Amino acid sequence: MSSLDIPGLDALKAEVCALHAELLRWGLVAWTSGNVSARVPGHELMVIKPSGVSYDDLTPDKMIVADLDGNLVEGTLSPSSDTAAHAYVYRNMPEVGGVVHTHSPYATAWSAVAQPIPCAITAMGDEFGDDIPVGPFALIGDDSIGQGIVSTLKGHRSPAVLMRQHGVFTIGKNAKAAVKAAVMCEDVARTVHLARQLGPVARLDQADIDKLYDRYQNVYGQQAAQQPIEPQGVEA
Ligand SMILES: O=C(CO)[C@@H](O)[C@H](O)COP(=O)(O)O
């Protein structure tokens, strides 16, 4: 149980912990790669997993609380290698409540060749509303990755970025939405890759992408439970 007097923090740790199992369930991670974090609503804090701990051994009490400069606030284990990157995203994109990182194989293959995934199928228009962009190469450990995520995704509809020669980072209104974006990113990365083996792949018309995105974000499913993040303006 958390020693911080923050209502809902224990539940958020349990949620972030449980979402790591989703990365395994959907085949997005190998061994201990990948991580999920969530902003602590109303506080300059985030919850993220510890570094390099087997997913089978993750428990809510092992989750780390860090501030939005990436400093450890609560937890006995070393924080995720990507803590500073996630923190940078929360600092610079106030609309974001969850961040996910994976090395899911098809999407990471696109990142390895630094090619955006063209918006060629309706599922991409729905979830991403555009091509899935490539972000810059950045070394792991400080907030360089975060800077690359923010500079690529700020003002972009896509909640996913392919960080060059590294892997996928996704954002969402909350951690579950960011996990969903990571699942969908891998799905479309595989489908568009397979399509390219069969022949040339054409991007959908922008007008159709706009209609698909609008319908999926505003009409599809149970709208009370589905709240997309609105792209915010690019920093001057
Ligand atoms: O991308 C990398 C390392 O290449 C890391 O993101 C790991 O994949 C996960 O690190 P931890 O969250 O376990 O520190």
From TrEMBL:
The keyword Metal-binding applies. It catalyses: L-ribulose 5-phosphate = D-xylulose 5-phosphate. It comes from the Bacteria. Residues 14-193 form the Class II aldolase/adducin N-terminal domain. Its cofactor is Zn(2+). Keywords: Metal-binding, Zinc. SMART domains: Aldolase_II. InterPro entries: Aldolase_class_II_sugar_metab (IPR050197), Aldolase_II/adducin_N (IPR001303), Aldolase_II/adducin_N_sf (IPR036409). Its EC number is 5.1.3.4. Coiled coil: none annotated. Belongs to the aldolase class II family. AraD/FucA subfamily. NCBIfam families: PRK06557.1. This is L-ribulose-5-phosphate 4-epimerase. It comes from Streptacidiphilus monticola.
